[in-house]
Specification:
140 residues; Nucleotidyltransferase, domain 5; 4 helices; rod-shaped
């Protein structure tokens, strides 16, 4: 009688196939590279007192573009009543020949917050690079 010897162990391939792992890692790398710039939601605001005083003087100039939101939600561009839909085009037309794209916003303290935010969105839609929020100092 002879002994049957199995040589199946010699045929086993113990090499690790890293290609699928590298493919997955490259896809994840691309996803993170695309998403990372979108995660920057921080808005840096620098409002020194001296600059705020100068901005208030700039808002009082004759050619300053000012938007006002009243208590009942009406929006005015200068002295003209406008709607949120036409705000972007009218502001863009006023800023066409100006070098500084700055708009000042005044809002009543009791106005609806949503209306104020709609006004800010309309101003941003006009391509405004600087938005000044005007307030009044209350002395105690």
């Amino acid at each position: 009688m002879g002994i049957n010897k199995r040589d199946e162990g010699k045929k086993v391939n113990s090499n690790i196939n890293v290609t699928p792992m590298v493919d997955v890692m490259l896809v994840l790398l691309i996803i993170f590279m695309v998403i990372t710039p979108m995660l920057n939601n921080k808005v840096n605001v620098d409002l020194p007192v001296a600059v705020a005083a100068v901005a208030m003087e700039d808002a009082n100039k004759e050619d300053a573009v000012t938007v006002a939101v009243t208590r009942d939600g009406h929006i005015f561009l200068g002295g003209d009543s406008i709607t949120v839909d036409e705000m972007g085009t009218k502001i863009a037309a006023k800023l066409e020949n100006k070098t500084s794209k700055e708009v000042f916003l005044r809002a009543d303290g009791r106005s609806n917050y949503g209306k104020v935010m709609d006004a800010v969105d309309g101003i941003r839609a006009a391509g405004v690079s600087q938005l000044g929020m005007l307030t009044e100092r209350k002395d105690n």
